Amino acid sequence: MDMTGEERIAAPREAVWKALNDTDVLKACIPGCESLERISDTELEATVGVKLGPVKARFNGKVELSNLNPPLSYTITGEGKGGIAGFAKGGADVTLTEEGGETVLAYSVNADVGGKIAQLGSRLISSSAKKLATQFFEKLGQAAAGS
C-alpha cells in the first residue's frame, strides 16, 4: 500500500518538528497508542491497538528514525507484529516546509501487511489507513499549535 499527502498545520516548522519528536505528543496523537517509549536517539518501541474492519489487533513493534535533517525532514520505518492478526511494516518520508507562518507536512508512505489483516482487501486497509492518518494529523496540528 502506498499513500501520499500533505497536511497544512497552523504552527511554525520548529513547533511541528518538536511535536513530531516528542514521545508524549506522539502517544497522544497516534490513534490506539497504548505505549510509546524512546529506546535511543533514533529508536522507539510502541504498542498500538487498532480495529480494521472486523479485525481488532494489538501491534507491538519498533520504529526507527533515519535521514534526519532537522527541522526539514526525516524517514521513519517500522515493523509491528499483531499475533494471529498478522503484521504491518513500512516506512514514510516526511518533509516540513514553512509557508507564511504555517507548516506544510508532506508524506510518502509505503506499507505492507500480512496475515489475517491482509485478507481484508486493499480498499478496506487503505480507507482505514487514511482515516487513522486524518485523526493523527488533526491531533498533531492541535499539539503543535499549543491548543
From TrEMBL:
Entry-linked InterPro entries: CO_DH_gsu, START-like_dom_sf
Superkingdom of origin organism: Bacteria
A Pfam family annotated for this UniProt entry: COXG
UniProt cross-references to SUPFAM superfamilies, sorted A to Z: Bet v1-like
PANTHER family xref list: BLL0334 PROTEIN (PTHR38588)
Protein name: Carbon monoxide dehydrogenase
